[in-house]
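WARN no homologs supplied; continuing
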Amino acid sequence: MLTIYYLGPIFNFMQASVEIKQQIIDVADTRFRRYGFGKTTMAEIAKDCSMSAANLYRYFDNKQKIGVEIAENCIRNKEKVGRGVLQRENLSASVRLEVFFVEILRYTHDLCADDPHLFELVSFISQEHPDLVLRHQESLRSFVAEILAEGNRTGEFEVLDIIATAQTLLFATVHFYYPPLVAMKTPSLEELNQAAKGVIALIIGGISKH
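OK structure emitted
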């Protein structure tokens, strides 16, 4: 049941529209995870939302646009996790770098848990909307670059080219943030955690000021 706000009917309509769109996204996400992105139809999403297909098309032209919304939500949440690590106080740059990748790994693992169909959506986004992937990569790179710059300022690191090093570090750690790799049945999350810490320790050894 929609809430009636005192600001008037226009605000009420906009609020209702936002709520309905989010309901559609949530319902579609559940169906994608259960049956797969490729096998899901707009009619099935509409049925799950208890609305007509015609009404569903008022909000989304096709399921691909719903998939993009879901992907963008996941990306925003992952970047929120990374940004949160950057904002923590009383961490050395070395510790912050390790915690950053461990937290990103944990978020990605939780996202992929018991979701054998996630790769379908990831594949679709990678092929049809590489701009989203590139923007996400740029965000992760900027987060890592900020940590490296912090390490330079505190004297922990000696990184001559921060941007290039940040990009190289992302290449070296792709197994810990790319969903299809994280979603592999083996190794376990604990094994991935240990591997991530080992890779970061090796990298820190190479960029630490000697």
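The chain has two domains: 8-61, 63-207.
OK
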